[in-house]
Amino acid sequence: MPGLVRKSLDSPEETRPFEGGTGQLQLVNLEQGAVGRATFNPGWRWSEHVKPIAKTDSCQAAHMGYFVSGRMKVVMNDGEEMEYGPGDFATMAPGHDAWVLGDEPCVIIDWQGFADYAKP
């Protein structure tokens, strides 16, 4: 393994668009796994814009990420809910829906749950 590695999410190795032009996921692949930056535009909701791609009743990815900008509400299948915003670090277990709050895009860096996220 090299001592230094440099990759940029501004030049991703893969880009996956969400349904309806509501955002995208940009990925770089590291030996330890994929790291992604997702931009969720206002109006984005997992159950409307990723569910048709994932073909599951709720998001089944486990996320570990950092919120760069915007706000998002996440509701677990059991009813537990939380809002996240800029500067927040989050872990989310599989089994949730999520949507953007407000009129600002929500940008998240995730290094756990995006490898198979929104993958057809």
From TrEMBL:
InterPro entries: RmlC-like_jellyroll (IPR014710), RmlC_Cupin_sf (IPR011051), UGlyAH_Cupin_dom (IPR008579)
Signal peptide boundaries: none
Compositionally biased intervals (Basic and acidic residues): 7-17
Ranges where the record places region Disordered: 1-24
Record-linked Pfam families: Cupin_3
SUPFAM superfamilies for this protein: RmlC-like cupins
Domain (S)-ureidoglycine aminohydrolase cupin: 64-96
Protein name listed in UniProt: DUF861 domain-containing protein
Organism: Arthrobacter crusticola
